[in-house]
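Next comes a concrete protein, fold included:
___
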Amino acid sequence: MRLIPTLLFTITSCAAMAQSTWRVDSLMTTWPVRLAVADSRHGSTPGVIRAVDTRNLYTQLQHTVTGFPVFADSGVVRYVDLYGEPKREEFRALLGMAQVYFPMIEGELVRQGLSKDFKYLPMALSAMNTLAGSQQGEAGLWMLSYPVALRYGLNITADRDERRDTRLSTMAAVSYLKDLLARYHDPALAVMAFTCGPANVTRAQGRTSGATDYRTLYPQFTEGSRDVLPLLMAFIHLSAHAKELGIAPIPMLPAEAADTLRSDRELRFSAVSRTLGIEMGRLRALNPLLCGDRIPRLEAFVLPRGGRAQFEALADSLLREQQRLAAIPAIVPAQAAVRTINGREAINYRVRSGDYLGHIAMRFGVKVSQIKSWNHMRSDRIDIGDKLVIYVTASQRDRYDRHKAGGTEGSEGPTNQVPIVKENVVRAQTPLSEFTWYTVQSGDSLYGIAQRFPGVDAKRLMEVNGITADIKPGQRLKIPLQQ
């Protein structure tokens, strides 16, 4: 009888550990880091690896950082041990990225009169990854939310996100941090509000009779924010003691030479990647501000040096590839045998340009973890043309069947994709009103909702509905349709 609880505890612990490493794991998939790691392995040796000593962790942290309070608990120790030994290589890459961005961050902190110690914040928030993003809609080096980014002057549309601009986002982030320090008059509370959100701090204080210290408050934060502060303390300690621990940063390679282009027609990164033979990760690294698959007409975009001539020479091939990708049906019929799970029927979904698992999951009202389980996937990676088995409810199946039959109900225009199937989306019936109604769900953000509808951004939603970025579950929003 003792075996089952032990097994459940082990599984739960492993799941928590996997979730807690997603920031650094995501960094390791980026093009610059992959190149740097591969380059570092040529002729290199492991060097002297020293065990991490955490016996005096709190005292050492106090000596390292003076700009804001620190703490140490079992969670911090666990991350120090994790990135100090089994995931040492990943932390070396993180240190390499920190070497690239720390000088710029320190300069902005000094310019605005803040301690240089705050430079460590993006290590825990994004793992120094400018392409980072969360399910809650935060993005960029500092993982700024949409409302904060908008408040501090950053522009975000469906195609372009200035939170991915390292300098602009750093200026906005430091200004926000400075305002939080003035608001709370307590560096610890300001750090918690910046990293985990003021709402988290307010709720946690309400549950703890107004506590102000890290160790009391952070366990009360929402699950997605709970690991940031222990990570921050662990990364501060490992960064300060990297040399004595034998953790050498992996040097990042210089930025590659590139050509800047503009096109008189809309393009797709996926078509450019396939036609020119440029890996998608490389294109993303060269064009961090362009956040979707679409390159709008006359929008500046970047290709590796020599790409301009190749682009011009293969213009006809690129057009044909775009037409081919646009013609790929999003849904293909399920195989002859009807498969069911818990009353849900299976359909086969074919991955299209711009798709990612989170978007597909939202479209069918399921979880990413379910899609991965149904398709025996170990990672979130999908490629155009891949077929995914998705189990849908009867109402979702009816929508799918109507779509196959050529009906217009639920159509989203020329994309030929089945509409978002959540029952809280209702299309306006009058032809004079070119909009859709959407009912806000728990966990929704205005930025996340905008991402689900082509040609719409959060700023436009606020204008149409006469609201701020503060939305609540049950609220109905008018969604303009793409013309």
User: Anything to note?
Assistant: The CA atoms of residues 110 and 116 lie 7 Å apart.
